[in-house]
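Any chance you could type out a protein's amino acid sequence plus the matching backbone structure tokens because I've never seen that pairing?

——
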Amino acid sequence: MAKLHPMLQPYTPSDDSPWNWEKAAHLLNRAGFGGTAEEIQRVLDDGPDKSVDRLLDFPDAPADEESESDTPDLSDVEGYGKSFRDVAKKFAGKTEEEKKELRKELQRKNAEAIQATVGWWMRRMATGPYPLQEKLTLLWHGHFTTSARDERSARLMWRQNEVLRRNAAGNFLQYVRQISRDPAMLDYLNNQENRKAHPNENYARELMELFTLGIGNYTETDIKQSARAFTGWAHDGDDFIYRKFDHDQGQKTFMGQTGNFDGDDIIAIIFQNPAMSRYITGKLLIWFAYENPEPDINDNLAAAFKEGNWELRPILRTILTSKAFYSDKAIGAQIKSPVQLVVGTTRMLGVDSTRARGLVGGALQQMGQVPFAPPNVKGWPGGRMWISTSTLFVRYNTAVYLAGGAVLPQVDPGKLAKFIGRDKGRSQPVNFDPPTTGSPESVVDHWVALLIQRPIDDDKRKILIDAIGDRVTERSVKDVVQLIVSMPDYQLC
């Protein structure tokens, strides 16, 4: 294997760069959604290598549709059944006309089913056993974008979410082949309508522009020729189908190669282009380490990706154990996405995630990130785009609400009451009961270490201590926690 760039070499604790609470918390923030004090302490005790190996140890297996934890609970969606498995059973033995009417009936309830699926995924992110797998699923959801606004089947959106999850750290070549056959993707980018008589170029274009190569690494002719190769790729319900008579069997010239290509051939040729490796490893470096990674670091990581036959797990391990990952350029330099903000706050405070589900339709939407509803085919822009004058107040207010503060004005009380199980119209703050032991100074230091995880200015610390006063009470601790999550420092991880 080619020698890794010095900044991709494993981080080794030293006197100049000790393994400490800040670095342990950083790992849990980037490879998940933050951690409780106990989780951070475990990472601190285990060290970086063992902790990364544990985070990467998750199953690359499809969901067990018999398992309630693996599937959304649709019990509250009238006429749907308890799960998507029950929905699928409704089609058994039906005529085509009956199936058509059943689909219309389900579509009328589709928005509610999507909402239940969003809540299920938010809970997995907040409380599930494999935080890195869920963090990767969120990454790939913004990469291989599909929106529930355009896909009218909640079941197909959930099934795509499972494709993203089980391929999250697998082989990227197989991943692209699977996503190219995914029914929700075939619908979203109109390949369902791609026939030899009238080729549809949408999927072929986004496959190169957004999924594998990036702008500037293909031509308009490549788009037209590859669109011909994907003709006939469609689905029937949950299943991918190849419509032989809709497929263009003619010769195609794509990126300098000529043959009777199909979609898999196009993907294989794309993977021969060096731009593909650089595009994907660059995205991984930005997601986990920092913006604008140095070209020589990315080129080196891309070479390792190709040499490793496109396996993602070794590349992820390289990033998460690297000197670059634990550098000053990385720690505390990433603006939290709205999902990271909500899920991380929920997780770190130990809040019952079911009580925060009302945020999905209110604050998350205003902050610009609702799962299953990316703004367009490019996904969420992220980075500095998360912060604006219109979103910053909602971000502060959301975190305060999760820390037991007042109800968000951005959340409809009736909708929130429905989600958190309160009386209609009498929404209350999320229940948050902090411990009340210790001196004002130790209480402040505890919560700063847990929530911000990095040193803060002395004057900010003094303000927090003064806010507690002479006596530590549940109310004063809540006030301090709400002040901490309102600090600009808390917007970063």
Notes: The first strand starts at residue 233 and ends at 236. Residues 73 and 83 are 6 Å apart (CA to CA). The first helix runs from residue 21 to 30.
